[in-house]
């Protein structure tokens, strides 16, 4: 990473400005103003998220927004209503109120003396989501967006559900927001009303895990803010970006296929990170790439960015399995359109424990009249090496060697490849199955097996079998009746080298990445009625004319004093005496002081996911967070604890929140909720 301390424009930072909303509320904004903008107005770029501009995202904001402001853009980082130093209480994600506020903020920006009337919007994760959602509202001042690590489908491709299965990240993300939503504004920004605002948030923000768990089907709760319901609503240019280790990559492919506006897609090897900080690497000069985009769409300059292929992706080479990587070897590939003429679906049949990739095979496997089922009922240990649904690349949260996972799975392996096989897109599997119980799930994984036997997961998919036909109207299975199901796997660009094998692994559990069914179920798989479908790719002309990305750059870092360094780890505890297995996740952001505002910050989160023996109803997730802010004039701490457990009919939530001021507990609240399982 190159640190840049010289820019075309000098930049003045405005620590806080309040932006008025239509209902009288005010949103807090931090602004980076290029010198001369008040006399010669410039375009504005908005980032709009609930993660506290004053302290928590201050370092990232400094690195990103000061850089772009130094190149002639007014950069504005806004705390959403109910977060940071803004008025109000936030009660859920991606609400209509949130989007209306963004429309008001964009209109306000365009009216300022330093703005030329052109506004862009960008963000990662939540900021990527609402960039798409606000674009669909078509505010006339919004001329283009950059959406990073986001989703167009809040039900089927988000942190809550996947293939109709409840994700462990549902609890994890609810925990993140439980902590954030309970934090106070800064008294130096909002004045003496800070304490009343804090108590209002702790009392009224709510436990978001509850509504997320109550809506186990696809419904208007999820679709109202899902832009895939009407892609045509987006009328401004879109740059969609993701990473193969992230959870939201499929969105980039769908947006390239369905949007009708000028658009670009970029997928690197990264986890949930901005690409100039991307891990696994290689990181790229993302801020320079963003400037090329903004210069084209907000300043009308010919940067050449729209002359390049629509979609660019990092095709990964084979690597040994590991739970973290500094770099993923590979190469950039390009596509002028998506779907691509360079990609064709190849269908391979399954035989007993075999992927039939023999010469001349090109269609569904021919039945010989003597087919037999392969029985599958996985132990609860399958999934403990699955990694996280959405990798943050700060912990060892990627999938490890799949051989242990495969020991509790049904596996189908190809012969050794005579030639490399390149894929780009979303592999799928079609299975003919029957189940001994009305409720069951399948987890499918595609892996790269090296000659030494090590197995690296390439991609995976999940299916709650009661959701086989519909996420909106699930239906239980009729025991022992045969069904055909189709399970898409996450998109990927991957090269399988000659001499390696492809392996398809199938299990009936994948804990704790996905919550367990209510009881163990044997699923019978009929290989002669089943197929693996690969999006095989041949190199295209676009690959040869891709310009190189520049090296990563950013503005000078935030000055901090560190009292305790961050710690990240995943620990697996197996008690052979009690037969309890627990996965412990440590995400300790450490203890530091932000020098320019004098605030000490302490942040820590721990998660535990446990099961007992082979008892599916013993599944339990527990999370605990600590957050603290301290200055001479301010000393507050917030602690949360959430427990999610179940039996065969219900989910059970217990949560508690405690707020402290000057070491005295000033607020405490408990929640106890029972939520019926709905085909889940």
Automatic annotation (TrEMBL):
Keyword Hydrolase: yes
Ranges of residues in domain Xaa-Pro dipeptidyl-peptidase C-terminal: 291-533
InterPro entries hit by this protein: AB_hydrolase_fold (IPR029058), CocE/Ser_esterase (IPR005674), Galactose-bd-like_sf (IPR008979), Xaa-Pro-like_dom (IPR000383), Xaa-Pro_dipept_C (IPR013736), Xaa-Pro_dipeptidyl-ppase/CocE (IPR050585)
Hydrolase in keyword set: yes
Record-linked Pfam families: Peptidase_S15 (PF02129), PepX_C (PF08530)
One MF term in the entry's GO annotations: hydrolase activity
Keywords carried by this UniProt record: Hydrolase
Protein name: CocE/NonD family hydrolase
Source organism per UniProt: Billgrantia ethanolica
């Amino acid at each position: 990473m190159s640190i840049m301390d010289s820019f075309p424009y000098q930049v003045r930072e405005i620590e806080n400005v309040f932006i008025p909303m239509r209902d009288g509320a005010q949103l807090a904004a931090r602004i980076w103003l290029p010198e001369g903008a008040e006399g010669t107005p410039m375009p504005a770029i908005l980032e709009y998220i609930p993660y506290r501009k004053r302290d928590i995202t201050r370092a990232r904001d400094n690195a990103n927004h000061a850089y772009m402001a130094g190149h002639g853009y007014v950069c504005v980082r806004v705390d959403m209503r109910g977060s940071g130093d803004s008025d109000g209480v936030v009660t859920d994600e991606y609400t209509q109120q949130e989007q209306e506020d963004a429309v008001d903020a964009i209109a306000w920006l365009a009216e300022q003396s330093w703005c030329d009337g052109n506004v862009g919007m960008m963000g990662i994760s939540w900021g990527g989501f609402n960039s798409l959602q606000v674009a669909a509202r078509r505010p006339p001042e919004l001329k283009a967006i950059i959406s990073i690590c986001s989703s167009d489908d809040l039900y089927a491709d988000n942190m809550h559900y996947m293939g109709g299965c409840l994700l462990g990240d549902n609890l994890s993300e609810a925990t993140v927001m439980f902590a954030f939503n309970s934090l106070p504004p800064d008294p130096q920004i909002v004045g003496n009303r800070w304490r009343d605002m804090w108590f209002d948030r702790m009392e009224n923000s709510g436990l978001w895990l509850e509504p997320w768990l109550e809506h186990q089907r696809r419904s208007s709760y999820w679709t109202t803010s899902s832009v895939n319901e009407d892609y045509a609503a987006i009328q401004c240019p879109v740059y969609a970006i993701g990473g193969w280790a992230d959870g939201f990559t499929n969105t980039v492919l769908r947006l390239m296929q369905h949007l009708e506006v000028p658009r670009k897609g970029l997928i690197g090897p990264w986890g949930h990170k901005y690409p100039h900080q991307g891990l696994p690497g290689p990181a790229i000069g993302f801020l320079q790439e963003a400037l090329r985009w903004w210069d084209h769409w907000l300043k009308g300059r010919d940067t050449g960015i729209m002359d390049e292929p629509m979609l660019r992706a990092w095709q990964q080479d084979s690597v040994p399995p590991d739970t973290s990587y500094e770099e993923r070897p590979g190469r950039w590939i390009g596509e002028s359109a998506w779907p691509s003429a360079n990609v064709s679906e190849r269908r391979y049949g399954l035989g007993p424990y075999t992927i039939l990739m023999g010469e001349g095979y090109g269609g569904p496997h021919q039945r010989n009249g003597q087919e037999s089922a392969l029985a599958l009922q996985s132990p609860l240990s399958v999934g403990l090496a699955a990694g996280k649904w959405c990798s943050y690349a700060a912990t060892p949260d990627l999938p490890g060697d799949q051989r242990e996972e495969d020991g509790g799975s049904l596996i189908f392996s190809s012969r050794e490849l005579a030639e490399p096989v390149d894929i780009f897109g979303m592999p799928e599997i079609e299975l003919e199955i029957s189940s001994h119980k009305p409720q069951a799930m399948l987890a499918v994984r595609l892996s790269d097996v090296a000659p030494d036997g090590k197995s690296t997961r390439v991609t995976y998919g999940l299916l709650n079998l009661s959701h086989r036909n519909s996420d909106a109207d699930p239906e239980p299975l009729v025991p022992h009746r045969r069904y055909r199901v189709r399970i898409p796997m996450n998109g990927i660009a991957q090269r399988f080298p000659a001499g390696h094998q492809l392996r398809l692994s199938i299990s009936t559990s994948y804990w704790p990445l996905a919550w367990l069914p209510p009881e163990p179920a044997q699923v019978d798989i009929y290989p002669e009625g089943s197929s693996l479908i690969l999006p095989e790719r041949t190199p295209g002309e676009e690959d040869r004319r891709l310009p190189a990305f520049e090296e990563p750059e950013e503005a000078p870092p935030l000055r901090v004093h560190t009292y305790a360094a961050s710690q990240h780890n995943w620990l697996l505890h197996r008690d052979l005496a009690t037969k309890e297995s627990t996965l412990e996740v440590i995400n300790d952001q450490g203890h530091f002081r932000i020098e320019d505002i004098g605030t000490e910050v302490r942040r820590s989160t721990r998660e535990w996911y446990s099961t007992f023996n082979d008892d599916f109803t013993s599944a339990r997730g527990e999370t605990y967070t600590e957050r603290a802010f301290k200055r001479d004039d301010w000393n507050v701490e917030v602690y949360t604890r959430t427990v999610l457990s179940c039996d065969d009919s219900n989910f059970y939530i217990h949560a508690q929140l405690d707020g402290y001021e000057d070491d005295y507990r000033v607020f405490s609240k408990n929640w106890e909720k029972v939520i019926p399982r709905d085909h889940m």
